[in-house]
Design goal:
four-stranded antiparallel beta sheet, alpha+beta, single chain, 10 strands, 421 residues
Length: 421
């Protein structure tokens, strides 16, 4: 059988566990939302920053071509010969290591390159994507999709712009730039397990992607996808991260919270153990000990409490019971001593008792009164015998008291026979 202390400790423990469990669930939900949103916001900012860097780099090269085109347009027509263009292109590439070459293509399928010395007799610019797109979007700078260089190793894109006419032929300026640095940066990115990055072109072609890309793989992993726009090229930067990676800080936080709460529960239980022992169990043990002593006939022992709670009230009520029993015993003993001293009229003062205690006092007083009355009747009868009244009355007593009646009657007969003799 569990003690009240154990039951209360278990109750406190259950309340603590339930309360802490509810608080933990609420706190976890709030923390998860906050941390998850913060992590998502951080990932999106990262994607935006990467997209902005790429866009800025492309825009810088577009500015080089735009400046070159405007310079070309402002040149006097007599100075815009193709040798002059070649020198201008070569000059513009200086200090721009990412630029592979700058060139011009004409509607008569002639071309001028600033750096390349490769035979271009079979090169027809009007059939090239950069030329066609620039002619379709005159006044705008276009960026082609990536392609592998035919003359060098590396991935290129071409930036092109319509630059007016020369000698009656349409002219489009083109600028080839290496994007290998972008591709290498994406490929070499240190990513969490299951995450991947890729850059998609206007038509969905892949510009670059991480080495461990899981793009298109149905692995059942739930991912958050972050998208950044690269306006200068209309490319799209895509970063996919497993949800478990984003929520990992939340799980770490939960583990820490559970550890702290476990310590809190332990401390609360220790405190509850001490508190219940001192405030509840110890006083109850005092009451239990007092009841055992009273049951064993021990009345004179201290029992008091200054506590203002229910336990204190219980102890004080029990002390009243103790005092009432003590007073009753004192009254009985006092009456007994008085009657031994000859005061047959001594009685217990039943006015100080109520209820069952008053019934006990009245019962003792009644029993004593009946005995005194019997003594008086016996004395009266014997007085009659002493004065020669052998017919002095004596009641017929019930039960075992009948033996007294028999003794008196036998004594009466003996006196009568003696008198007759």
């Amino acid at each position: 059988m569990k003690s009240i202390k154990q039951k209360m400790i278990i109750g406190v423990l259950l309340i603590c566990v339930v309360g802490i469990g509810i608080n933990t669930a609420v706190a976890y939900d709030i923390a998860r939302t906050m941390i998850y949103e913060e992590a998502v916001d951080g990932k999106q900012k990262f994607v935006n920053a990467e997209s902005a860097d790429i866009d800025g780099w492309i825009a810088e090269n577009k500015a080089v071509l735009d400046t070159l085109a405007r310079t070309f347009e402002t040149l006097p027509s007599d100075t815009r010969d193709r040798d002059a263009l070649r020198r201008l292109f070569a000059f513009q590439t200086q200090g721009h290591g990412q630029i592979k070459d700058i060139y011009a293509g004409f509607s008569d399928d002639m071309s001028v390159f600033g750096l390349s010395t490769t035979d271009r007799s079979s090169y027809y610019p009007t059939t090239r994507p950069w030329y066609i797109q620039a002619m379709e979007h005159k006044g705008q700078i276009i960026v082609t999709g990536p392609y592998e260089s035919a003359t060098t190793t590396g991935t290129l894109v071409t930036i092109a712009r319509y630059a007016g006419q020369q000698d009656g032929y349409d002219c489009v300026l083109g600028l080839d730039i290496y994007i290998s640095a972008i591709a290498d940066a994406v490929t070499d990115m240190a990513l969490a397990d299951g995450a991947y990055v890729y850059i998609a072109g206007v038509n969905g072609e892949i510009i670059a992607e991480s080495a461990a890309s899981a793009r298109g793989v149905r692995d059942g992993v739930k991912r958050e996808v972050f998208i950044g726009d690269i306006p200068s090229t209309r490319w799209t930067y895509v970063y996919a991260v497993p949800e478990k990676v984003i929520t990992a800080p939340v799980h770490k936080l939960l583990a820490g919270v559970l550890l702290i709460l476990s310590v809190v529960v332990f401390v609360v239980c220790v405190f509850a153990w001490q508190f219940i022992t001192r405030i509840i169990v110890a006083p109850l043990r005092a009451v239990s000990s007092a009841s055992d002593k009273i049951a064993d006939g021990i009345i004179d022992f201290p029992l008091q409490s200054n506590s203002r709670d229910e336990i204190g009230a219980l102890i004080r009520d029990f002390a009243r019971v103790q005092e009432t029993i003590r007073s009753l015993i004192k009254g009985i003993n006092g009456m007994s001593l008085a009657q031994k001293a000859g005061d047959l009229e001594a009685r217990i003062d039943d006015s100080v008792f109520v209820g069952a205690y008053k019934e006990v006092a009245d019962g003792v007083n009644g029993m004593t009164g009946e005995l005194v009355e019997l003594i008086d009747k016996t004395r009266s009868c014997l007085d009659g015998f002493a004065n020669g009244d052998l017919d002095a009355p004596f009641p017929s007593l019930p039960g075992k008291q009948a033996r007294l009646t028999q003794s008196i009657e036998s004594f009466r007969k003996n006196l009568f026979y003696r008198e007759v003799e």
